[in-house]
Structure formats: C-alpha cells, structure tokens
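Can't attach files on this board, so I'm pasting raw text. These are the components:
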Amino acid sequence: MKLSQKTKYALRALQVLAREREPVRIATLAEREDIPRKFLEHILLELNNHGILSSRRGRGGGYQLRKQPEDVCLGDVVRLFDGPLAPTSCSSERAFRACDDCKDPDGCALRGVMREVRDATARILDNLSLADLNQRADAVARLTPGGR
Amino acid sequence: MKLSQKTKYALRALQVLAREREPVRIATLAEREDIPRKFLEHILLELNNHGILSSRRGRGGGYQLRKQPEDVCLGDVVRLFDGPLAPTSCSSERAFRACDDCKDPDGCALRGVMREVRDATARILDNLSLADLNQRADAVARLTPGGR
DNA sequence: GATAAAGTTGATAGAATCGGTAGAGATATG
DNA sequence: CATATCTCTACCGATTCTATCAACTTTATC
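---
Top answer:
Structure tokens for the assembled complex are below.
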C-alpha cells in the first residue's frame, strides 16, 4: 500500500483543520502547506463529499472539519484516496473480491499471509485519529525545539 | 503496498520450483500455473539475475531454485518486484529517502506512523519462507480435501 | 440587488507504471 | 550442425497519478 501524494496532502490539510476550528480558505491551506492549489481543491472536495469536511461559500467561508478530530482515523482517509488497505483484493475485509485468476481463494496460502498484513496495517491506521496525529507532532516538536 | 500481478505470478512460480528440485521449463511453468508465457520469462529472468533462481539452457534445461526454500522469504520477492515495503520512501528501512516536499523527516508525525506500518509488514513477510508458504498450502489442502 | 469572494465541476494533459507481446540473439546438448 | 531453451531489447496499449484550466454556482456583504 504505497501512499499517494494525494493522501499525504489530504492528511497535511486535515492536520491543520483539526487545529483551526474556524473555516479555512483553500488558498490559505495551499500556501501554508505548500500544496498545488487546484489539486488541493479536488482533495478537499472529495473530503467534503465523504462527510469528513464541511464547506461554507462566500466571504468568510472555507473548509472546516465536520467531525471531531478524535473521530477521523487515518484508515478512513487512506482508504478514501488510495483504496483498500489490503495488498490483494482477496485479502480485503471491507472490499473483498476474489482475484481474477484465483481458482479457490479459500485454498490460497498467499491470501492468508496478505490478510495478516492487512490486519496489521488496519490495526495501526484505524486506531489513530487526527487528534492523535497532532498530539504526536506536538510531542516530537517539544523534543526538538527550534525545529528543522 | 498493493501486490502487483507480477509478484503474484512470481510467488506462484516459486512455490512450484520450491517443490520440484529439477530444472523446470518456462513453458511448463506457464502452462501449469496459467501465466502468460512471455510475461513469465521476464519474471524468471529477474529472479535469476537476483540470485534466487538459476537457469540451464538447451535440452533438459529450465529454471530451478538456487537457494533452499527455507532461505527465500516473501519479503525479498515482494521488494524485488514491487519495491520497498514502506508506504512512504521516508519510512523505508532499506531504501530511505526523504519525501520530496518534506522539510523535516524527523519532525514528521506521519512518518512515525508509516514506520509502524512498514515494520509490521516486514515482520510478517520477512519471517515467512517459500517452505513455510508451501507448508501452509498443504495444511489448507488437508482441511478441505477434494479441493475447489 | 450588484458585486466580488469563494467553492464546484468537468475537461484536459503529461508522465509514470503496469501487464503483456514480439522477435532476434546466445548457448547448451545430442 | 540442429534443436531446444533461456536472454535480452524494444515496444505497445491501458490505466493511474499528479496537476492545471476554464467556466459555473452559491453566498456574504455593501
């Protein structure tokens, strides 16, 4: 499961939005996080359409988190942009599909292995919220004051 | 880390070669495992060039495992065809590279998370050999006799 | 209600990757 | 030498990824 640029941008933007609880304009986000503006529009729109963000148009508008930062987990974001966590479709929990050339998924030894990988990944990403992520970032920042 | 078709083909071929300790022809492997022949040539060649297989040309030739089935782990095969196990280059152990747009890898909270994912994946794939995989396949086959 | 700020949408495009094919070349064996 | 087999280089079509553009719609404020 290679993380796409899109997902990385999304998570960076969400980290900001999890802190600011006021609407933030696309332009501001794009500048602060150094994300191509037009590309970011797509990303935020998709997050909006999936109920993670809400938007307000017009003056004073922008995007803000619709849920609580504790209630958005990394797994959800990754799945939204990069698809199922599982390495093969046959090992996916939420999006199972037998592999095209697989005669018998239940007799496939590889599938068992890949289910282990998926489960391990999901255990990490589904138990980590935006709030946790920001908390970690703060913890690291305290350890290396001055940054860079 | 989505598993490519190439990797799946490679593992299927290796499972066969881990059982037969005689040279097996490309054509035979392609037929038995239902893999496009020309595509399989590439795959076996790459495994050969990386010291996992050895080859013999001419009559009676073919490919065979160069190492012991216990000494080839899934992690090696996956890395060969699909690249590093880590979800981001900055979280890779063997192929670390700072992300293009990352100012400070050490201060990146996401990186820490992705290292956890990488480690969990590696722990599974690097501790499982071809021999283990075949053993698992046999175990499943015994549970569902008749197959299919 | 005019106007401007802001989000929404669809089309497009270049680059990279993936799955696969073609064919000539090299080499071992009988 | 003839044949069987692997080796190597090039190429192709489809898809995905990243990103950009232009046009449109909605809303806040004056």
